[in-house]
Amino acid sequence: MKIGVVVHGPNIIDSNWALKLIDLLSGYGEVSARLGGTMGRTAVIDKSLEDIIDISKKLVPSDSLKLFNDANADVIFLINYGKSRVTGQVFGYKVYNHYLLKVAENNIPLIQIERPGEIDGSIISWNGDNNALIKDLSQKLDLNIVTPEEIYNNHFKQDKIDDGKIQRIVHGVSPDENIMVNSMVIGKSKSDKVTLIAKDGYITDIIGGTIKEHGVEKLGKVDLENAIVKTGLLRKSKVKPRVVEKNKSADIFKIAFLDHAGEDVYQFKDADLVVTVGDDTTLIASDILYRFNIPIIGITDGDLDKVVEDGFKAKNSIIFEFESGTDDIVGEKIHELIFKNEKILIRPRNSKNIDEIHGEIIKITNLLNCKYNIITI
What we know:
It is built from 11 helices and 20 strands. It has 377 residues and is of the alpha/beta class. The strands form 4 sheets. The chain has a 7-stranded mixed sheet, with helices on both faces.
C-alpha cells in the first residue's frame, strides 16, 4: 500500500509525533512524507528530518495533498498538532475543502490525525469508507473518532454571515493573541470570538479584536475568503536550533532584501547577508537564517508582535532600532538606493562586505535625519 503523509506545522514535529506517526504508518505500507505549509521547515531542519520529510517545495497543505492524489497514493494522511481541538479540526475542514477544488477525482481516502498524545486528540476520515483503518489507528493511538459532520455542526453550522459584508470568522482564538493574515500581523484578539471584516479587498475591522493599521496597510489588498489566517505563536516550542553548513562562493557576496514577508525567507538561504525591514520580519527571518549561519541587518522601530517563542540571530548581525513608524521609510530608501529596487545585490566578496552595507545604511539614515540605536550580535 502506498501511503502519502502531509506534515503540517512545527508542533507536530517538535513534539516528535511526526516521526512516531511515520514509523507507525510504515507498518501498513510504503510511506512518503512531505511538508505542507511553511513554518514547519525550520522544525524539520532542527530535527534533521530532511531525508524523511520532503521540504524541497513551498506548498500549502492542500497542494501537498494534491501531489499525493496525482501520484495515485492508496491513502493520504494529514497530520497536525493544532494549539487546540477546535483550531486543529477547523484547519482540517478548510484544507479538505480547498483540496476538493484542486483534484479531478476524490476517490483516495484522506485521514487526518490531530493532536496525538492529547486527551482531546482525534482522527477524522474526510472521505470514503475507512472504518477498519480508522478504528485500528484510533485504538493504537488512543484517539477520539470524529466525523466531518460533527466538525461542521460544531464549528460552522452556527456561523452567521452578513451577506452585505465580506467577513471571515476565526475559530479557536484566545484573548490577547496576534492575528496574522498571509504572514502579516493585522491585529490582536480581545475575546474568543473574532471576525475579520473586509471591504473592497481591504480589511476594515476586527470584531472581537483590535486592528493594527500599520499591519493592514502593509498587507494591502487581500482575498479574505482564501487567505491564510493564524493566531497566536507560529512556533511555541523552545528548541535547540541546528546550524546547517553551506558552501560559500570565494568570489561573490550575495545580499538579499526582505520587506515584511518573514515566512518567505527560505528563498534566500543561499545569501551571505539579508537586510530585513520590520520588527516581526526581522525576528522570524533572523531565526530561520540562523540555521544557515546567515547574518541579517534588521531595520526595526519597536513595533514588535511576538510571533515565535525565541528568536535566534547569527553572528555579525546588526539591528537598527528607529523611532516608531520610520522603519518602512528607511527600508524603502535602502531598497531604492542600495538595491536599486531589486531583491538581490551581488558584490565582489571581501572582508568588509557587511561593514560596507552598514555604512551605506547609516548614510541613508543621516540623509533622512532619522534617530536610531544600533545593536550588534
